[in-house]
Amino acid sequence: MSFLTRIALFLSLFSLVLAEGNSNLKPFQRPLILEYPERIEPNVKQGCTDEIQLQCTGWRFAVEANNISPWKSIPAECADYVKDYLTGRGYEVELERVSNEAGIYARNVELNGDGKDVWIFDIDETLLSNLPYYAEHNYGLELFDSVEFDKWVEKGTAPAIQSSLKLYKEVLRLGFKVVLLTGRSERHRSVTVENLIRAGFQDYDKLILRGSEDHGKTATKYKSEKRSEMEAEGYRIMGNSGDQWSDLLGSSISKRSFKLPNPMYYIP
Fold it and tell me: What is residue 59's three-state secondary structure?
């Protein structure tokens, strides 16, 4: 028997003896193997969509906070975003929230009882909705065309914003004087009155529209002047609802103002 053969036999016998003397020893465990999933390629299109969604949400938030001014049209990449917002539940829910908060405030105002406590409402995108018009003009993507918009106004078919109608009726019931202060032209008084009545807005104290002397003024200046005139007559402006910051800012501002959402257009 060769030397190598003797060594191999010895090792075999040694292993057998070792196994018998250590019968409690467990066999080697299967090594832990980290199994990685197959590499997933990023969905570039979805990633871009998500980023645009975030950017457009940020843009709309900045608009509502009055951090972007002035602006003439919505960003081109946000056209679908704005359309989805306005035609979906988002816009409706935010309108309802503004009106609900205004109603809470109105119910807690202690009126003087002399008929001098006033609540001011803007009209377009505050009481009446022009969404049917803007649906045909890409929801603010197109630059504003005053001639085309006047044609829409003259139809007198703008529907009520239902949450605003509810607030409007509650404010009247509580005893506020209601004044409608709009940037519409005086020449549209008749059709505006008819549209308001048809939509359910009645019993207001006064409807103020732009006269010939007001054309060319910014909305902020024009509405500030009209509010100042009210105060000079002894009225107290307790509430003010509008979709534009120019409805609410300036001089003779209300004790409490309520900004309705509007990402379609900006009026200085």
Answer: helix
Alpha helix locations (H) across 111-234?
131-135, 146-153, 162-174, 189-199, 219-232
Q: Which residue's structure tokens are 């929230």? A: 97
145-195 residue pLDDT tens: 999 999 999 999 999 999 999 999 999 999 999 999 999 999 999 999 999
pTM: 0.82
Cα gap 211→208, rounded to integer Å: 9
Residue recorded with tokens 């969604």: 53
Structure-block tokens of residue 126: 């505050």
Residue-by-residue DSSP string for 104-128: HHHHT----SSS-EEEEE--BTTTB
Residue whose tokens read 């010939």: 212
Q: Output the six-digit token pair for 70.
A: 């002035």
